Fold these 3 entries.
Entry 1:
Amino acid sequence: MCNACGFPTRPGHWTDAGVDNAGERLRLQIRRAQILNRLLNGYGFKARPPGHGPGFALSSFSGRTTLLPDLEAVWQDAAQQLGHPIDPLDPRFTTAAEPNS
Amino acid sequence: MIAPPEDGRLRLTILGGYLGSGKTTWLRHQLYEGAFGKAHILINEAAETPVDDTLLASQSAGVTMLSGGCACCTGKDDLVIALQALCDAHSRHKSEDRQTAQIVLETSGLADPAAILDAIQQDSVLVHHIRVAEIIVLVDAMNAEEQLRTEHLGRAQIEAADRIILTKVDTVPDAGLATVVATVRHLNPAARIEAAVKGEPFALPDLPAVPPYDLPRISDGGEPIQPTKIDIPDDVDWATFSIWLSALIYARGDDLVRVKGVFDTPAGPLLLQAVRKSVQPPELLPPEAAQRQNQIVFIGRGYKGDDLRRSLDYFTRG
């Protein structure tokens, strides 16, 4: 791991592919937090870039904030707190819109 | 499939298939024909009867026997250690030798190739040094019906394959063969289907269009899998897609047996591949692959294909 920027988060973590410089990496991290919150908000969670290095700071309905190294850890932590995984195919996400493709 | 560029990692071909499907016979012939060059062969025998190595030793760079249990479960540690040793040896080779070096793993008939893939992804050394080039699964055309009716494992092996080779096809009449092909295609629509007799390639005849076997539900298998191809709309960026897919794989990985496709990212077209919860490190493809970009195939069960599109649409539009 690079001491300056903290990337890559973990060897071979697939979601970190797709960018090839530090600027894009930072943009991706910020954009990801926005998208992530669309999934998390309805469950009482909020994610933000931790301000240094990779991963996310996940705040939950319990008031707890946890620093997590990557997306997989976010899903895992959320599932532990909720008692079930956050499912993108939950009716709340699939009944809102008609598919356009 | 588009060949990813050489990246110095050792190529690993996983050869799977049910007990008695003809893996060693097929591999022996392939080695004789030079299909895998001078590959190092790893052989996993769940039942400790190490005879395959003597059949294969003369045509390969080396043979390692793993007879301490099935490499996808009890023998997983032995497999990881053997692969690490090969990576270690590989890193000491001259660079021109490294380009051609490869490993073929002949799994035991009881192994789920997806579990082996997962073991490699989970190991912090192997994930950097090994690229899984292909999962080849052999299916015994003579016994396929009974195996697929009763064995979840037989179905799981087919579902995990990139290439499926039907063996013993000369013993099955065309009508029966047509049903086997239809069933295999139904279980894994994304895989290439070929045939072989005693290890030699066999051109499949023109087969009548027939329905697949009516496979019963198996308690640990569930309903048959369905393919869903999604053309990702232009307004879906990599950030959105990677978040959505990682959540989907975490929540539905056991049902989502295969995800495969090319997605255009700021760095270039990425080849995405997942088998159940195990996502392979995406390969950056040459720019000419861009014409196939943003089309992802999901193969799985327990969800509606349209729900995938609706869900992705929800997160794209916010």
Note: Residues 43-87 of chain A form one domain.
Entry 2:
Amino acid sequence: MANHASMAAAFIKDEARVNWHDETLWYVRHKRDLAAVKIPEWEQLRELASEIKNHTLSHLDDYLVEFEKRATENGIIVHWAVDAQEHNDIIWNLIRSNNISRVVKSKSMLTEECHLNEYLSNRGIKVVDTDLGEYIVQLREESPSHIVLPAIHLRKEDVGKTFHEHLKTEQGNSDPQYLAEAARQSMRWKFIHSEMAITGVNFAIAETGGFVVCTNEGNADMGAHAAGIHVACMGIEKIIPRTEDLGVFLRLLARSATGQPITTYSSHFHKPRRGQEMHVIIVDNGRTRQLGNPDFRNSLKCIRCAACFNTCPVYRKSGGHSYHSPVAGPIGAILNPNLNRRQNADLPFASTLCGSCSNVCPVKIDIHEQLWKWRQDLTKEGYVTKSKKAGMKGMAWILSSPARYRMAGRVVRIVLRFFPSLVPIRDLNPWYKQREMPAAPNQSFREWYLKNKK
Amino acid sequence: MNAREIILGSVAINKPAPAICPETLISSNKNRSGLIDEFIQMNRVAGGSVIETDELELIKKDINQSVKNREYFVNTISAVGQKNKDINEFSDAFSLASVHKVYMRSKLGVAENGSVWLGESDLVNRLLPFICEHLVIVLDSNSIVSNMHDAYKRIKADEEGYGVFISGPSKTADIEQSLVIGAHGPRSLLIYLV
Amino acid sequence: MTVYLFVPCYIDQFYPQVAIATCQLLGKLGCKVIFPLNQTCCGQPMANSGFAHLTSGCSANFVRNFSEADYIVSPSGSCVLHIKEHLNDENEQAGKHIRDRIFELTEFLVDILNVGKLEAFFAHRVGLHVACHGQRGLHTASMTELVSPSFSKPEKLLNMVEGIQLFYPERKDECCGFGGTFCVFEEAVSVKMGRDRLSEHKSNAVEFITSTDSSCLMHLEGILKREKSNIRIRHIAEILNGSDRRES
């Protein structure tokens, strides 16, 4: 099974591409810094956002009930889905009972998590992803590599080739303006003809029963206001208590994500337009399990800004596909093991625990601390190789005894002096592949101390 | 047990001990001219443009030009000209597909991000400000507030069935982080600040 | 003032000069230095790899060696942070006593000894690598992610060294890629991260690179030596102690 380490190594082989990927995403982090520093009360906002989310999670059932009540009063039809299967079934039932064939979808990580597109495709419905980045990767039959910038792993030449193949743009023309215009023209009539528009939910407001969707392209609105049915999909954790809380979250979201003070469109939906049906699907899919775990429940505060991706040197230098999940990056590494241990046991180890992610998180998720805790849980549950386990047990045995530790140290230093690479064959010693071993001094500090100080 | 009961039951068992909800008391004391300058600058950064004017004559001239150019435009502001009788909340996407320009009035602007708030009644039709090629907004400069906290104090977001903050023309940087103005929504946003 | 010296296992074995410099420096600044002879390892390499449950032996040994100390000082931010956050001996009182009294070297010099000047000379172009665990975990310096006043304890001390020219890389506090066992289990990413840090230091034409953590330096030095670079590594203790000679 491909894991992060091997996929990262493959990504890094193309040095020009990884350098471009790294610099581009670092620039997005830099723009975030510039935006944050303009707000003197930035750290206060983060604290507020964190506390609002902590409070909400502690009263989550009450807020969900309140949201449902108000939304229903306003004419929105509210559905509940225990897992991805139920979520997908609800959408399929709406499609079937309304004889729908043309579906557009704006960005929703939840629908990626539920593999909705694949599910509907198996039933003969080809959903069109309308966010430009998602549209590009959809045409290429790839998955998005970043939750805000889905096509960040691609160069414009890659997009040019894809559009030439699918949209009949000029061969060899990779001008972004030209390509985006082609996408606009192609997409426009898909919006106009659409029968169902699926969107995500950035924030759902308990107090009013409404929800907010943020985009720069306007694609969520183009679909939602054209189609006869609007389906908005949300995880249970998207709830916030009051409208005034939007002030805090909307000030933090776009600045953290891209360095903009706000996205071009922040759409507030409260009632269906007359003659339209509006549905909201509230989804669990493992979130209540995460909620019940004091070590990891903070991860549910996430507002999907991807600031942690942009700051993480491991993400920048290994690419989103190395995380083999819809949500990559540091937040993915603490969310995904909850969804599937076996597939995602490698992710919490794809980190040096530097802590930068926790600092950029607008809702103060202790990401790097949760990465450490996941390592403990996954190891105790057995998701570790026999050799690593044996090696660690050996290490613990040696290092816990002064006499054994000193003996081992002496032996290693002697071996290093005669066999500088430790093992003549590079492949068995990963350190030695691209680095020299440390030099072996004649005496340890303790030996020096005994000679000179006692 | 249905899904609702299962989920709510699961939340009830798993939720943490109660934590207090903080007060969100942040506002700022900028003087009026500071707010207007900031609004103009932030809107420009987002790709929009702002024209300051004392009266509505300039906007009427804009509309007359659209008439001369034989553009299909929609005006929703009675003060500047005749409102389109043929456009209402029930107009569908097909009938709006060839709208070139739309004129709307906003009741609130936000200085920290250069955005304007449009409620459903300002829009007439929800799709209108998205499907047109060019969006023109009329905004009273006295209705500019400092930040989003102040904005939410002024508007009642759920007063109508739909409302939106718009901060500029539609855009995308999804192709190699190259900024392209005019993604799926309008290619330009012009604000007349009166 | 009596100070117990906590020497990380890999410094004891591979970089004794760092501990020697720390010992001498503390002595010069008026401290009586005690080195508990039976210390081994804090347990961090196992704990960070998911095996914290195997570190009780290391923790117990640490407590045995350091529970009498008024101050414990170590030339390693990551090891000090590990003790503060993950020391897991059953003697909770001793654990608390230790956590309240353990300091990384630059923390100790600035916050406890209030060092205002140093008798040190190092007339070289020096790149300062900001080690993550000390910086973000122990707050030895401000962090570029946060909107807060700028400060740095290591920088403050280095600026007291005569003749030194200090340079930060462009990405002031990006991780070097060592990360404990990460450096072997994710070797490709680890080395790429290290190389990227080094290329920024090279842009500043530094002669030396220094840091509060020898783990970072060991990783960077490994890469530099493989490249046959002229840039040399010095732990901050060695520079602050005034020596600019070292056995190669």
Note: The mean pLDDT of chain C is 95.
Entry 3:
Amino acid sequence: MSDSLSDLSSKSIQEISECSNLKELELLRVKYLGKKGKITKELKSLGKLAPPERPKAGQRINSIKEKVQSLIETKKLVLADVSIQEKIASSSIDVTLNGRKNNRGNIHPISSILREIESIFHNSGFRVEDGPEIEDEYHNFTALNIPENHPARAMHDTFYFNTNYLLRTHTSPIQIRSMETHGVPIKVIAPGKVYRRDSDITHTPMFHQIEGLVIDKNINFTHLKGMLHQFINTFYKKDMELRFRPSYFPFTEPSAEVDILSKDGSWLEILGCGMVHPKVLENLKIDPEIYTGYAFGMGVERLAMLRHEIKDIRLFYDNDLHFLNQFK
Amino acid sequence: MKLSTNWINEHCKSKFTSSELVERLTMSGVECEIINQKSNEIIKFDITPNRADCFSVRGITNELLAMDLIKQSKNKFQSAAVHHDRSVKINVSSSEDCPVFATRIINNINSNAKTPQAIRQKLEESGYKSINIIVDITNYVMLTIGQPLHAYDLDCINSPIVVRKANNKESIELLDGSSKSLNDNFLIIADQNKPLGIAGIMGGISSSITDQTKSIVIESAYFNPKTIMGCPRMLNLHSEASLRFERGVDPTIQIEAIDMFTILLNKIAGGENGPISSKISEEYIPINKTINLRKNKIKKILGITIPNIEILSILKNLKMDIEENEFGYQGWNVKAPPYRFDINDECDLIEEIARIYGYNNIKECIEDEPSEFINESSRLIDKNNLCNILTGVGYSEVINYSFVSPIMNDLNQNKIGQSMDLQNPLSIEMSVMRNSLLPGLINNLMHNLKRQHKNIRLFEVGKIFTGTKNKINEDEKISGLIHGSRNKEQWGYSSELVDYYDMKGHLEILFESLGISNYISYKKSNHKMLHPGKSGKILFKNKTIGYIGSLSPEIIFDLNLNSEPIVFEIDYSIVSERITYGYKEQKYFPSSRRDTSILMSEDIEINTVVKAIYTLNIKELKDVVIFDIYDGKTIKPEKKSISLGLIFQAKSRTLTDEEIDEFMININKHIQSNFEIIIRQ
């Protein structure tokens, strides 16, 4: 008995020390310490011994078991380390190789500027309004103080469907529609497509505008100036130098164009604005003696062209991916 | 209008540089810029339609006076000598249209006289070719004081001269060589036999000045702007005269203009003058009304207080008649000079004060209203969500014109409404309003394929237009198109072409993000642009919201494409149908999965089987995954084999194997009794 135990002990120690991988080690663990393992068997056979021999033999077997256990644990750590090192040594990739991917698409540059402007005004308390692109003569012209045959209509080369219906030439009719719907006081912006019969390097027959309208009891020209200056600073993300110069729109008076000072020192026109003409208010049964307001409108393509230094407006409508993919 | 800086300086005896003039005039509302022409600097004016008075050197000078940049100089008004008493008989039959009509006969003109260099140069710098001495002087007078003149060859006129509406049968050959048919919209100048010219627009060729002309009738008129308005547009004929008459010419300078013309002509080309013969209908000459200008209204509109003395000085420099109200405490009664057709109301005067005072001298303020918190705009959230999802799966946004060619509209089925056709399109390619976004996307695909792009994914958000009897419909749509390989060419992926299910997956991501997947269903259907076997309509709560499918083989053949584009078009309004589900507390218990394979006929839609499983209402059935579809060689051609993974999970405990076995027995029994299928274990 004693001899077979020492054999077991030395054999297991030898086998563990010679073991070279984790799989084998696990087999050795099962062989000696498993449910049917050799050491387990010895422990189970203790019962067959005469009671006085049991404690001594038990002690011996347990000490072998502990030793084998601890040797396996230690060996396991060593072998695990070896195996990790082997894995590291045997596997390596080209980290410079391109990743697997598919391209992301882009938002159209006009859309992103529209959304940016919409968001700036929304954050300042403006509600966003839509209107029809096929308008009637009344909302596009008459209500805006542009009577029939007035030379101001020549400023807008209009697409007609028939004598009454046309493609809106500006987003200003949305002013009229939102006052009809919501009355005053009012604070809205109206982004959208507009159409004029014109096509060259700086004109496309369809383009985008954003119109703004504020009417309340104590609104005056200083507010128009203050609000637009704030907007322009926010849009350009810096303090901009600008000038307001007199201009003419039939539906505002006084009317102004706003120019910003460009890098090369020249003035660039970026929007038109003015105090809402009393006749426009009267057309909507709003008393101009009580309410005053301002309106402004800007061309989105123009802002995009200035921001991205694009020379030809038609590029926006070619929808060439070489162009579109540049606006990430 | 173009004028040389020299001419302006000469006229107002000043020494402005071109840039000084441009700067000051721009800031008073007269838009202009320097254009260099040879050595002399020329200023090009872009005059707004309200400022009829600025179309001359005198008009520009008036602006400089208004800004107090020059001092008023008294122009001596001279009358020309009269040598004989012959005059032409005038008959104005429509005085309201022509309140002032003045003429003079001048005989014995040396029409070979050369236009002096000083005048010639000014005209050329303003863009007028020198024609002959008579025409040159009419142009010179017009540019100097703003009155268009017209000279007729006396020998070609059969007097009297009549000013009347044209009749519907008349036509006229004009100076520019064109021929126009007339009608009673047009006022004409005529003699006994024929029209001599269209009033305020252009003269006729028959009585025009030639090298042989010895005697002329010079005409100087004031036409009612309302009479002329719109006529140049109807004729598509915009002349220097119509530009001015349409907006309004000073009704008090007709005699002065004839005299100025006569004196210049006599000096250069001699001639014997008759008396001025005129027909003036005082009652139709516009008189500017007196406007009550209130001090507090100026403050209300401009937001600043301008001292009375400054207001008065501005109004005086604008040559307004002023009368104080309560010594100016209340304001003033103001009357604008006759050449200012644009000043009819108090707001017009306030604008005048503001522009001369200087917009840049008005401070900036922020409205002093209580600030409100505003939540993020749902409109923007919806749009951003849509764009993020579509760009995330590779779509780029395009924007196409809303008008297309009729052929493009014909591609789409459109039985509901009629097409909206433009009366005056730029071209046939842009002549009807689009009834679908898809033809535009197909165009974009073709354009980009030509530019050697591959694997194209595009989307557009925009309106489509249809008309019905009493209504015009504008419906906002989202459309998409994909074409080419599923993955861009790279290592590690095989190149497979996109198909219906790629695009359907993209839409599913969109609907999941909106929380509406459970309300969306698909049904096979026919759409004129789509492949009948590979397309369907999309329903939300059983209402059709759009279509998805491969482009029809006919279109693909016509376009000569070598693989199928897949497209969709759905209502944009779906993006605002977002459903938000609140948080539900859940305890975790492990789930179990059972797989099953089913052999079924090709024409059974797999989803009807999945739906049937759900109708058993097994609460513990959490998900059904279709993880394989096989229709290969080992099974009969009309059959397909699908593999489903059924995932079970209870909310309050771990399910036992026995429970799940029972679910599976029920499920198999149920689908076997409802469909002709074989369960393959």
Note: The longest strand of chain B covers residues 456-468.
